[in-house]
Amino acid sequence: MVSLNIRGAVLSLSPYVTAIDAYMSWSRHGFFHPEYNPSAIKNNPGLYDSLKIFTCLSQNVDWGEQGQASRGLRSLSQFIRMAGYDSFSDEGDFARIISDIRTACREDGFEFREDPYTITHGEAIALNELNLDGLSTTEGIYRKIKQLNRVLVQDKDNLEVIGFSKVLLQSWGESSEDSVSHSLMAAACGRC
After folding, report:
1. Which of 50, 104, 126, 164 has a Cα at 20 to 30 A from 185?
2. In the predicted model, is pLDDT for residue 141 greater than 80?
């Protein structure tokens, strides 16, 4: 799950992305909107705004669905890579936005890599590796995974990783049905 925090930080780069690059960042990963035609955007760049394109196409993503969220994350990374600035005066603002994206990623348990700019799960547990269907407290499990990912990415404190892993496994065991695979969860947490 890619949070609003990360999406908002990336959206801040919209003044540094052309309208066609904004559109292509989303379309290359399968996100489209009938209002936007790539030929029209390319031929009439002044009529389109990268902020509106980003907002519209980002709203078309079901960020709670793992497959779409993964493709959306790749779109966000592509959007960042398309950003650029022309003048020296923009360099400081651009660097501050990149720093804000890095901070948002760290806060939410993601990694921000440079050269090329990419947002990844890093060493964190990718949510698409877990089958959480059938859990009565899915949101609670997501919260624990997010806490675990933060500890893995930010602090790298083994005691906290073990503590959060234990709580996560206990939460999983208390709320799960027979259909949920405990071995998958143990394997995912075993990477800690």
Report:
1. 104
2. no
